[in-house]
Amino acid sequence: MTALSSLREISDPARARHDGREPEKDLARAELAAEEFLDALGMDLSSEHLRATPRRMAQAWAEMLTPRPFDLTTFPNEEGYDELVMVRDIPVRSVCEHHLLPFTGRACVGYLPGERIVGLSKLARIVEHFACRPQTQERLTKQVADWLQSDLAPQAVGVVITAEHSCMILRGAQAIGSRTVTSTLLGRLRDDPRSRQEFLSLCGTTVTG
After folding, report:
1. 27-40 vs 53-64: helix axis angle to the nearest 10?
2. Which has the closest alpha carbon to 89: 162, 150, 166?
3. pLDDT of res. 171
């Protein structure tokens, strides 16, 4: 198996596990691949400044592509709370799967509780879990929403992510300052215009109509 095919196997979103565990990463192989990559681009790896760079690259990429394990802690909704629960400004750090360049931003995640509620910190951990692999922002947004809908069974789920993409800023269009906004709304937040407007307004997203 080549280093590239190994990366593809590790980063496949279908391999994400509900318990947060990820397949083992081969740092030694990743370091060799990084060395070949830099050498192919004409970097002088005999330089004291670059000599340890392949090792640092392997460690850095492993860190970016390894989410911390977590359990989705839920509790009975004994009070029958039926208004929005929302966490805003959740940091998003991921890697564009088309260029392997970072994109960073903020997520807003909310839900209308059903029979159970979730520990608030877990909303941020779910974002981190799906962000720690090569991604598209569109898929990331939908994965977070679908996972909450499946595992929590709320009345509604809403996810909005706003991010800046290095692949747009540092290369290609070089659209410095541009931001990409994606959203996934499920249940009442999709079907009820008033609920949808309330959620988007609280997220700080412009609402028209």
Report:
1. 120
2. 162
3. 77
* 49 carries an active-site annotation: no
CB 200 within 8 A of CB 168: no
Tokens 């069974």, located at residue: 153
Catalytic residue among 22, 96, 108, 129: 96
- Copy the structure tokens of residue 137: 């922002």
- Counting as low any pLDDT under 50, the low residues of the chain are 1-20, 207-209
Catalytic residue flag (residue 18): no
Q: Which of 59, 149, 155, 167 is catalytic?
A: 167
Q: Is 14 exposed, middle or buried (0-12, 13-18, 19+ CB in 10 A)?
A: exposed
84: Cα separation from own chain's centroid: 22
Asked whether the beta carbons of 90 and 123 are under 8 A apart, the reply is: yes
Q: In this structure, are residues 68 and 128 in contact, taking their beta carbons and an 8 Å threshold?
A: yes
Tokens 């970097």 belong to residue: 43
Alpha-carbon span 122 to 111, nearest angstrom? 13
- State how far the Cα of 72 lies from the Cα of 107, in Å rounded to an integer: 18
Instruction: Name the average pLDDT for the chain.
Output: 87
